[in-house]
Specification:
Chain A: This is SWIM zinc finger protein. Chain A: It holds the Pfam family SWIM. Chain A: One of its GO terms (molecular function) is zinc ion binding. The complex is a heterodimer. Chain A is of the alpha+beta class. Helices cover 37% and strands 25% of the residues of chain A. Chain A has 13 helices and 17 strands. In chain A, strands 6, 7, 8, 9, 10 and 11 form a 6-stranded antiparallel beta sheet that branches. A 6-stranded antiparallel beta sheet of chain A has the order 14-13-12-15-16-17, covered by helices on one side. A 5-stranded mixed beta sheet of chain A has the order 4-3-2-1-5, with helices on one face. In chain A, strand 13 and strand 14 form a beta hairpin. The longest helix of chain A has 31 residues. Chain B is built from 33 helices and 1 strand. The chains are: A alpha+beta, B mainly alpha. At the A-B interface, helix 1, helix 2, helix 5, helix 8 and strand 6 of A face helix 1, helix 4, strand 1, helix 5 and helix 7 of B.
């Protein structure tokens, strides 16, 4: 039993091009052979390709939520357009699928996979519990020493910059920073390196020097805080390599550590049986790190926590990696991995199932929203005052109305407390405020909004940008 | 206020960051804030810490200054981050909401490319845009304002596609956004917006259309005026606009006045015809197609002619121009197929203007063309205009009158006479009547006749399929014409008129196949094709001489056809050529093989070997 929808097939595709190509194949009727097994767990067929022989492709749904794609084409994209096309053909009403027996080669592969699973399960049973991962202490100490060295270089550079003043930054200084940033690549602190590159990007902007000073100063403060905090932490760990990794803050990740799921599991940073609903999505280019970041903001339907998924696609490998997308169904996962973080901790999951969104879910989201702005604001301020914290925390808030005071749009809660709205924090597909005027009148009254906060230093305001509005019937996505 | 003090401090800190902390020691402006900070510190400990940090900056050595400044700013920034205001002063107002029923469910990977195509420039967007429209990615609330903005696109195919998509895909939903975006002083994009609004809401857009017609930029004015067609209630406005400063606006207003056809509108058209807008008025008058108006124009032309006949010098040429315009208005009026005979090949659309208009026009032209002294070089334009008008009337009377103008047979009028003759006379009569004029091929008259013949044959041959022979129908023309064309050295007509083999013709044609003739020259090819068509014995020989004389680099369809129609005996020569022409060796050999393989009788039939 497969219940495929077009949107679901879209979500399986690695990128927009694959969607287009797959749909084109289905539309042009490029599948002379289209079959489905009696239990409807396997689609298979043949697709005309450029070669002499047609490509034989199949999609195996024997493991729910984890389809297995097979195709004889040489494409490196996965799933390839042929398997996607076959699914689109299955979804569309215009093409019919013959019921047929499972082909022997697929049956063989299924058997092998099953055996592999059994073996794995057996091994787990025997060897359980899994041995904790061993840490090579001398290597760790060596690494930490190197990291500390790198941080010293960074600190020296920061102090030098402050000493001479931002006004004196010229091409030569920028070149120097550039060289230093490159050099930092040898010290296992890619996060700090990227933060320096961010400063570099700011300083390179020649046209609006005056405007970027405020951000540049903030970045210098951030760098100095990062150096100080991580030095203390790393020195402690160098002395006692057995001490645990920092998980109360995102410090490790800020330094550039890429958390592995196994590590998170060991540290007990998992939640079981979680249902997540995506409230907003955005993909942007992080030039300092040289990668695209596909970001999803999700609500945990059990307690209303706002979680973040981040998929990084380095510019160089962007084409080969799956481009994430807006997601419209509820994700159910047995095991959710939670990264160290603050209000919006990053999460990941390996296995998941989907269920369609119901009206009850909208109601749930609305119930989980924070009703009182002073409470939310307090939490937000508490986070952003820390120089190393995420300066753009995201929160789900209820609103009485979205209104206007002069040119400023505001959110208002039941106690008439306000949050001013701006549009320049996240890159929206349009002027978000223009979209507000297109909504139904009742959608601007007594609903729930997902907003990203930011402190505006120059005007001394705490402002927010609307990301989505949840009503009783739908989610209005103001980003993607 | 303490926050203000913190901001002042922040300002000084920012200044020191820019100037360099090396200059911070004992900074006067920073020091000035110290007492206030300390005072506040008595109440709130955080100010004490700030005051201490600030003190540290003031007293730091040059080496330490950077660290101290960073510490102060870090502390300050942390405090300021807790002080952000969220209240905005002023009266709250509700946001107007238009309640457009569109979802926001198009996922990022489909919406983003669409928005990118709509907001960027570059190649290949049209194709991608078509794709996005095909899979309905534009049916999203977030895409609609962007789609409507993209009407300003400079690439017209994209803009038209978007306009059509807005009209059919969004329909009424787009109205409010278009209304909001439209700028009557704008450019082509706003013309599209106006047209869309007019299309989507019809009469409800009238106010906007009127506003645009009066106050819009030129392009928008023109578009708005066009929308007022067939709306007599806006006659006054249109009359006013027909006197606008801009020519484009006047033109549009006159066009639209023609469509409403009220008395005032027609009067205005006639008035315009006598003004500097003469040229602009002609087309609207023709389109207005009003018998009454045309009657008045005929009368006006009569008067113009009288004045013209009496005038002299500059005045005379001015009146000639006026008369010319008036006659142009009459073209196509009153055309009716009266007593159409079998030789009248011209197809005429029947206009509702009546026969007597045609009679009046003929009477006017008869008077003009029979006035002594009218035929002079200065009136050539008028003469031709009158003759063309007579031909366009296409009544028997008009044609007969034109043909009767024998006196001007040897002038530029000859071609018109010939065309009238072609309609009235049998092929033999036509030849007898006109061939004499062609005795002197370099005269104006013979050139005009040759032009007229080309015109007639073009019409005759317009229906001929590509692979048929280009040759005039034998029963429409006297067979003697071909010799006339030989004498006139009009190769084109000789080719069209050659029906059978004829020594004079073949001599003429072969003389054109000199050594310099190029095989890919289309007239050379056509000569060869004609020679083959009339089964001239030496045709294959001539073809091969040309092929052997010069190398050629590619084969085209006519050449292939020619080669394929030579007799078998030429196959060895063909193979010899193939060896010498590496570019075409394969194809020539293939042709030779095919000819060898073909049944003998087919070859025999096409050749004379």
């Amino acid at each position: 039993m497969i219940s495929l929808t077009e949107a679901y097939v879209d979500s399986l595709a690695p990128n927009a091009g694959a969607i287009k190509n797959g749909r084109d194949l289905a539309r042009k009727g490029s599948f002379p052979l289209r079959c489905v097994t009696e239990d409807q767990k396997l689609l298979f067929g043949e697709c005309k390709g450029s070669g002499k022989e047609p490509y034989r492709c199949s999609i195996d749904f024997v493991q729910e939520g984890n389809p297995v794609y097979r195709c004889t084409c040489p494409s490196r994209q996965f799933p390839c357009k042929h398997t996607l096309g076959l699914m689109y053909a299955y979804v569309s009403s215009s093409s019919t699928f013959e019921t047929a027996d499972i082909p022997s080669d697929v049956a063989d592969k299924r058997d092998k996979a099953e055996k592999r699973e059994e073996k794995k399960a057996a091994a787990e049973k025997e060897g359980a519990p899994k041995a904790p991962r061993k840490v090579n202490k001398s290597a760790l100490v060596k690494k930490i020493t190197s990291q500390l060295e790198g941080l010293s270089i960074l600190e020296k550079l920061v102090l030098q910059l402050v000493h001479h003043g931002l006004g004196s930054v010229d091409k030569k200084t920028i070149q120097l920073i550039e060289e230093q940033a490159k050099q930092l690549g040898n010290y296992y602190i890619p996060g700090a390196q990227a933060a320096l590159r961010e400063l570099l990007l700011l300083l390179r902007n020649d046209d609006e020097r005056e405007a970027i000073y405020t951000s540049a100063i903030e970045q210098l403060i951030y760098l100095q805080a990062l150096v100080k905090k991580s030095k203390a932490y790393l020195e402690k760990r160098a002395e006692d390599p057995d001490s645990p990794m920092e998980t109360d803050s995102a410090l490790e990740e800020l330094l550039g550590h890429a958390w592995q799921l196994a590590e998170l599991q060991e540290l007990g940073r998992t939640r079981s049986n979680v249902e997540l609903l995506q409230l907003s999505f955005l993909s942007y280019a992080d030039h300092a790190r040289g990668e695209f970041v596909d970001t999803g903001w999700w609500i945990d339907l059990a307690d209303g926590t706002i979680r973040v998924t981040r998929h990084m696609r380095p510019f160089r490998a962007a084409k080969q990696m799956k481009e994430e997308d807006s997601f419209f169904a509820v994700v159910q996962t047995d095991e959710l991995f939670v990264y160290p973080g603050e209000l919006n901790a990053r999460v990941r999951w390996e296995q998941s199932r989907f269920r369609e969104l119901e009206e009850a879910d909208y109601r749930k989201v609305k119930q989980l929203a924070a009703a009182s702005y002073p409470d939310v604001i307090k939490k937000v301020k508490n986070q952003i005052k820390n120089p190393l914290s995420d300066k753009m925390p995201v929160a789900l808030v209820a609103f009485q109305a979205i209104e206007r005071i002069g040119d400023t749009y505001i959110l208002r809660d039941a106690q008439n407390k306000q949050i001013p709205l701006v549009t320049n924090l996240l890159e929206a597909p349009h002027q978000p405020t223009a979209i507000l005027e297109l909504l139904q009148p009742e959608e601007l009254q007594e609903q729930t909004a997902l907003i990203a906060f930011r402190h505006e230093l120059d005007s001394n305001r705490l402002v927010a940008q609307l990301m989505s509005i949840t009503t009783d019937r739908r989610i209005v996505r103001l980003l993607y | 206020m303490s926050v203000e003090l913190l901001q002042d401090l922040q300002h000084e800190v920012r200044r020191l960051f820019i100037a360099g902390s090396a200059l911070a020691q004992g900074d006067v402006r920073l020091a000035k804030l110290q007492p206030q900070l300390k005072k506040l510190g008595e109440a709130a400990p955080v100010f004490n810490r700030i005051a201490e940090a600030s003190d540290a900056v003031l007293n730091a050595s040059r080496e330490d200054s950077a660290v101290k400044l960073l510490e102060l700013s870090k502390l300050l920034s942390a405090v300021l981050h807790t002080q952000g205001k969220t209240e905005t002063a002023g009266d709250r107002q509700p946001i107007p909401s238009l309640g457009i029923a569109l979802s926001t469910d198009v996922p990022y990977r489909r919406l983003k490319p669409l928005l990118e195509q709509l907001t960027t420039k570059g190649q290949g967007r049209l194709e991608q845009l078509r794709h996005s429209i095909l899979d309905n990615s534009y049916l999203d609330l977030r895409a609609m304002p962007v789609m409507c903005s993209a009407l300003d696109e400079t690439y017209p195919e994209i803009a038209d596609l978007i306009a059509e998509t807005i009209a059919t895909g969004y329909g009424q939903k787009a109205v409010s956004v278009l209304q909001e975006q439209i700028n009557l002083q704008g450019g082509k994009g706003d013309v599209r917006r106006l047209k869309l609004l007019h299309r989507l809401i019809g009469d409800s857009a009238e106010e906007l259309v009127l506003d645009a017609a009066v106050n819009g930029a030129v392009d928008i004015k023109v578009a708005a005026i066009e929308m007022l067609s067939k709306r007599p209630q806006h006659e006054m406005l249109l009359l006013e606009l027909s006197r606008d400063k801009r020519k484009e606006v006047r033109q549009a207003a006159l066009d639209t006045l023609a469509s409403i056809g009220t008395k005032e509108a027609l009067d205005r058209l006639q008035e315009a015809l006598s003004s500097k807008d003469r040229e602009l008025a002609i087309e609207p008058i023709r389109r207005a197609n009003s018998t009454a108006l045309l009657g008045r124009i005929i009368a006006q032309a009569e008067r113009s002619f009288d004045q013209f006949a009496a005038a002299e010098g500059k005045e005379r040429s001015k009146l000639a121009e006026q008369l010319h315009a008036e006659l142009l208005c009459l073209h196509g009026s009153g055309s009716e197929l009266i007593g159409a005979g079998p030789s009248w090949k011209r197809h005429v659309t029947v206009s509702p203007a009546s026969v007597h208009i045609a009679e009046d026009v003929i009477a006017l032209l008869r008077r003009m063309l029979t006035t002594p002294g009218f035929f002079a070089s200065e009136t050539e334009v008028l003469q031709e205009n009158a003759a063309e008008l007579l031909l366009s009337l296409n009544t028997e009377e008009a044609n007969r009158f034109l043909l009767s103008l024998d006196a001007v047979m040897n002038t530029c009028m000859a071609g018109y006479l010939f065309r009238a003759g072609y309609r009235l006379l049998t092929p033999t009569e036509l030849f007898d009547r006109f061939s004499g004029v062609l005795a002197n091929p370099s005269s104006i008259a013979s050139k005009e006749i040759i032009r007229a013949v080309s015109l007639i044959t073009q019409e005759q041959l317009s229906a001929v399929e590509e692979d048929e022979d280009l040759i005039v129908p034998a029963n429409s023309w006297d067979s003697r014409w071909v010799h006339t064309w030989v004498q006139a050295d009009s190769l084109e007509l000789v080719l069209l008129f050659t029906q059978t083999e004829d020594a004079q013709v073949t001599t003429y044609l072969t003389s054109k196949l000199t050594k310099n003739a190029r095989l890919h020259d289309s007239s050379i090819q056509r000569i060869l094709i004609t020679l083959f068509r009339i089964r001239y014995t030496d045709a294959p020989q001539l073809l091969f001489q040309l092929m052997e004389a010069r190398s050629f680099y590619y084969m085209d369809a006519p050449l292939r056809k020619l080669i394929a129609s030579v007799p078998r005996s030429y196959i060895p020569r063909l193979r010899a050529i193939a060896e010498k022409h590496p570019y075409n060796a394969n194809e020539l050999t293939a042709l030779a093989d095919a000819m060898e393989a073909a049944p003998a009788e087919i070859i025999e039939e096409s050749g004379t070997a």
